[in-house]
Amino acid sequence: MDCLFCKIINGEIPSSKVYEDELCYAFNDINPQSEKHILVVPKEHICCLNKVDEHNSHLVAHIFEVIPKIAKENGFESYRVINNCGEAAGQTVMHLHFHVLSGSNLGEKLV
Ligand code: AMP
Ligand code: ZN
Question: Residue by residue, what is the 3-state secondary structure of 42-68?
Fold first, then answer.
């Protein structure tokens, strides 16, 4: 499958790994939108939030258990979690991912 994040997960494309376990992988965003910008993705290919259902929602729950651990390990006191679902919402990589943004420049834009 021609998916950028699947290739990152299987090591075909290099990434700056932050965390990994049997279900998910986290790495630094190549184009950070804040001082710290980490992406957390399920290892299973799920194209977007619209494809989360009763069969795979445990992967999302797992990611939301992992995010506070990543935040703690990286010294994030405050952070923002974002998912873009669909092109019009800004999704450019069609493999479910959660942006974890931290730093002093987050501001109060959008939400
Ligand atoms: P989205 O726009 O929500 O689909 O987010 C995709 C994110 O992937 C963007 O923030 C990109 O900067 C990031 N990205 C694209 N290619 C890479 C890469 N090779 N390594 C790390 N992050 C990437
Ligand atoms: Zn994928």
Answer: ECCCCCCHHHCCCCCHHHHHHHHHHHH
Structure tokens at 67: 């995010």
Best residue among 80, 93, 94, 95 to mutate for probing ligand 1's pocket (most ligand atoms within 8 Å of CB) is: 93
* pLDDT tens digits, one per residue of 58-108: 999 999 999 999 999 999 989 999 999 999 999 999 999 999 999 987 877
Tokens of 25: 């992988």
Write down the catalytic residue from 37, 95, 97, 99: 97
Give the total residue count for the chain: 111
Cross-strand pairs, 42: 24
pTM for this model (two decimals): 0.97
Q: Going by DSSP bridges, is the β-strand pair 80-82/24-28 parallel, antiparallel, or unpaired?
A: unpaired
Closest ligand, as measured to the CA of 13:
1
Q: Kindly compute the dihedral angle of the four CA atoms of residues 38, 32, 36, 66, in this order, to the nearest 10 degrees.
A: -10
